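### Sample
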Amino acid sequence: MLSWMTAAIVGIFAIAFAPILPSYSLLLAMLGLASIFQLHSRSSRSRVILAFVLAFCYAGLYGHWRVALLLPAHLSGSDFVANIKVLNIPEERLGFSRYYRFDAILTELSCAEGLQDNYCDSSQPLLDRRRVQLNWYADSPPQQGQVLKGAIRLRRPHGYQSPAAFDYGRWMFANGYSASGYVLHPEQVVYLSHRSGFSFNSLRQGVIASFRDKLTHYQHGHIMAALLFADRSGIDRQQWQVFSRTGTSHLMAISGMHIGIVLAWGFLIARGIGLLIPRVNSLFVGAGVALVFALAYSALAGFSVPTQRALIMAAVALLAFCLRRNISVWQAYVTAMLLVLLVDPLAPHRAGFSLSFAAVAALLFAFQGRRSGGLLRGIFQSQWVVLLGLIPLLMMWGYGLSPISFPVNLIAIPLVTLLVLPLLFCGLLLLGLAPPLAEHSWRAADCLLEVLLHGLTWAAELFPQFIIPSSYLAFFLASVSILVLMLPRGVPAKYLALIPLLAIMLSPSPRPKHGSAWVTVLDVGQGLAVLVQTHSKALLYDVGPDFSSGFNSADAVVIPALRSFGIDELAMLVISHADKDHAGAAPALLKEIKVGQLVLGEALERVELPSIYCKDSYRWEWDAVQFEFLMPEKGGHGGNNASCVLRIRAGGSSVLLSGDIETDIERELLAEGRDLRAALLIAPHHGSNTSSSAEFIQAVSPQQVVFSAGMNNHYGHPALKVLRRYDNIASRCWSTAKHGSIQFNVAAEGLRVEKIWGGRRYYWQNERKFSNYADEICSNLHSER
């Protein structure tokens, strides 16, 4: 039984991570051949093959259906008019200003007239019933269940393609969204219906809203809501950072631990009552009520992947217990995984799926068939096993590790499991029976959470988090080492497996050779951030944008990239000029990363670190790599033309970082007779028509040029005319919108592309009319814009 279920799981995984979806004809042919083989052979091998093919075809058909629901790529960034049905209670979010976010279903979608129509083709048939995520930038958001008609701007799901950055586009697709966007002119929308239709989601949101009002009276009511209902909207960015740095984020996600407590309570209460009733099988009553309790609690949590896994495994275990059947724990485990994948074939793209199933697998592998050594020893060993077992996946997902997470979890998990959660559940049950007792119960939980958060904050400040650079080899070695360490006691010399594991964790991050430099253009959307590494130093040129929502590219892209490269301090930060897309995220970066020297092109607000201004012929050298600012002698420029122009020479090749300079500055530099030749050019002003004059391009003569621009940006960067100018001198052109982050190696052997982070990794990113991601864009002039 396990073999065919395992084959089915492999089939779904194969499609989930496939770069291209198999065609309908190929799926049909595979199904036909597998069916014929099964009818002819009727062996265990043929059943395994048939299970694999059935699951493979099911996941493939599901993939085709999901891709068909995506907003067409050429319409991304366009404006539409649609009927918008609000699916949930709008969630208030705070950035520089307050706004709201909600899920919606769109009907009667059509291209907007009189609005932006650069990409919107009214002749293109648009599919209705798309689920989208919308922002509302105004007060008085719509209510759940309401239907309104208005103008919206939509974008296809897309995320930053940078080292260790969260891939928002992948998350949106895996969670069923077809697009994201915002409501244009909220004050002009027309309400078509004010009735809230009944649905499971509306019922859940209503229950959560009623309890949320009661929890607001407590200091940590937002964390209590997260523990009770998986409503994490009230947890702010600073608190999430504390949880992340101490490895306790899992406490805020309703998982098997929470379900197990509810299940045990339901079973004990119902079986106790059943024993008092004659002619009633208390075992079945207890199991049934326990499952109902767990099901109701999982419904409040929105049936997340961890709750699905816990529910299925609990149901299998309870059924086996009641029927006095011996069912292997691994059979229950594999059954749970298969059922979750059948419900959602894209679940493997959620970190919660991987981490939750990996944690259970580690516990089963380590403890199955072994005797328990007592409660305290069991808690200690289980935390050690889970922490150890999750290291490879934490590496692959780009999550940080903290040396304090193990001792912190040894205290935090029992505190939350044995004290906080029971007190919260008591309050929940007593609310309708004895409100004063419920209040006392919740107040006690609030006090315990206060103690916990003080301890976590102290631990987060005391011990920094680090990210282990991931590779397939490191993942393989770490996984094998951990499996060996989890073998039963008595296996000879198993602790020698600590050596490769510690070598992976403690080995220094790769660095350029002496005299060489790595130049990494980070994908920060419509903005610029370039990391330059020498053998012992690191320089960051610009930080990328921030937004009124509070989101910024430092937290989302730059800081994760620095940590993934093993950089916890910058020798120099250069902010080319004060424009938001270059300097907006600087305050957020300076809060987290130590900077030795700050160099500015223009004065910056909200930055208190002592600084100097970039000036002509300011030169220095790091590890035999030369740096020099090339600034016009006249000076006095502002805005884009104040940009610091930085030249880097390493191994006989040069790199030119030009900020947002326009043709005026280009002409001044040429008139002064500057040597602008460079093998690599970061294109001025993102490839705008106002820069990259033919004379400037001829003087630089770059072998490689990079345009740092956002996907489908409304500026049209890079301009087609500019691309043609670079094509005329045979430059190879790259765009962060298409290729993601790009790293170049500048060495004695010359300049070469070292690594590309973006491109067509998954099947929903792959459209045949677009070229392969490894192709540069100038010679073909078929960028996806």
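Confidence is low (pLDDT under 50) at residues 768-773. This sample (DNA internalization-related competence protein ComEC/Rec2) is used throughout the tutorial notebook.
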